[in-house]
Amino acid sequence: MNKGIYQSLVQRKQKQQKSFVVLVDPDKVDDHKLDELIQLASESKVDYFFVGGSLVVSDYLDACVKKIKSNLDIPVILFPGSPSQITKNADALLYLSLISGRNPELLIGQHVVSAPAVKSSGLEIMSTGYMVIDGGAPTTVSYISNANPLPSDKSEIAICTAMAGEMLGMKLIYMDAGSGARRAISEMMIQKVSGCISIPLIVGGGITDPEKAYLNCKAGADIIVVGNAIEKDPTLIKEISAAIHSVSLSKV
Asked: How far apart are CA 39 and CA 180, in angstroms?
């Protein structure tokens, strides 16, 4: 199975190159909105697209992925909220295990059910330790997962959880405050977690401006994911992309 996308993430981390991901929820876009995002992403040198959501009740997932792929030479990675959110037209899949919670269904249960479909999809599968961090407001992911988020001021819990995920064989760690979070994950927590793992660290949730994206990268995030803020103001793509890539240029 092709391992190209994961290897690109590892190589970018080794070179201290930060990556910007635009997260698209198929329930929240149509053809017109997606055309705008595609144009802005092309102009702003966005590195990757994530497609998915906690629910996805529309039937736009497959068409959304196809539209991005047909217009951009940017990897499209599925960020599924359930086993049903799979399309062979994407490039890769974040195979998420909610290591911050204690819900067995999201640790391994749904993976057992989805394994045959995932195996036969032809997608590049990237095992991902998913950590939900308290963002100061109830989020869809917390409700759907039926799991409490990690306390935002308990960096030691996040550190141990991330280390456990890496030692269990996860290829990525994804720290997420959730869509609509009132506050993003603190730079202190990002710095401490990034300092004790060697695999790429993804950070998302509550990032609403270029400065926050920049500071998260400086703190040690390798990949910044922005979705909700871009849904409200797509033009933020240019500013956030410039901020993230400026950290790469400065050789942190």
From this structure: 24
